[in-house]
Structures are given as structure tokens and as C-alpha cells.
Design goal:
The structure is a single chain. About 0% of the residues lie in helices and about 45% in strands. It has about 130 residues and is mostly beta strands. It has two domains: about 35 residues, no CATH class; about 70 residues, RNA polymerase II/Efflux pump adaptor protein, barrel-sandwich hybrid domain (OB fold (Dihydrolipoamide Acetyltransferase, E2P)), CATH 2.40.50.100.
């Protein structure tokens, strides 16, 4: 038997797992016992969420997937053409170029190099 600590939805459980060799019966040998919640160690209080910056009016360029910003190629006020590289997003060990969907100028850059983003986060706003 091996013991593991597992956390599900914030509740910590201590479980025992038995490895079964090939060909052995997996029928329970005794009545199953429910895992009792184990007191989780005191976690640090969550930091208050920082207020999201107001998003400028214009065409929003959203993150297509969660990842990390490797490089920001534009700055506020810069003119861009459709297809220009706005930034590089690393996701699943791949570098993804985020391109301008239209001609315009950069009204707002909402991310910095090294920032983690979620799918749908507003990265850049074009005007």
C-alpha cells in the first residue's frame, strides 16, 4: 500500500492505493472505506485581485489560448498594418505570433513581457 495526499476542490484527503499485479483480482478484499478529510495545512491568504485596467475603445486583440507573453513588439501610439506581429505568446512550448487583425494604431497595450494570460484576455486594443 502507498499513501498519497490529494486535494480536491480545496479539501485535502489522505488516500491509500494498492498496486495490483497483472492477472490478480481487483475485487475488494474488505469493505471500501471512504477517505476522511485531512486538515489541510494553513494556506496563505489569497492576495487581493488587482483591478483590471479599463480597456480603451477600439478593436480588441484577445489571447487565443492561455500562455506567457515572451515579447511585446508594439507600443502605445504605434501605427500597424494588418498582419503585423503585435506580440509573441508562448503556449504549450510553442511560440505563437499574435497578428494585427486590421490597419490602425495601438490604443492600449495591456500586457508586459513575462506576463501570464488566460484565453480571452485582452492583450492589445487597436484604434
Amino acid at each position: 500500500m502507498r499513501k498519497f495526499n490529494i486535494t480536491v476542490n480545496g479539501t485535502a484527503y489522505e488516500v491509500e492505493v494498492e498496486e495490483v499485479a497483472a492477472g490478480e483480482s481487483t475485487a475488494p478484499k474488505a469493505a471500501p472505506v471512504a477517505a476522511a478529510p485531512k486538515a489541510a495545512p494553513a494556506a496563505k491568504p489569497a492576495a487581493p485581485a488587482k483591478a483590471a485596467a479599463p480597456v480603451a475603445a477600439g478593436t480588441k486583440v484577445n489571447a487565443p489560448m492561455p500562455g506567457t507573453i515572451l515579447d511585446v513588439k508594439v507600443s502605445q501610439g504605434q501605427a500597424v498594418k494588418k498582419g503585423d506581429i503585435l506580440l509573441i505568446l508562448e503556449a504549450m512550448k510553442m511560440e505563437n505570433e499574435i497578428l494585427a487583425p486590421q490597419d490602425g494604431s495601438i490604443a492600449q497595450v495591456n500586457v508586459t513581457k513575462g506576463a501570464s494570460v488566460n484565453s480571452g484576455d485582452v492583450l492589445v486594443v487597436l484604434s
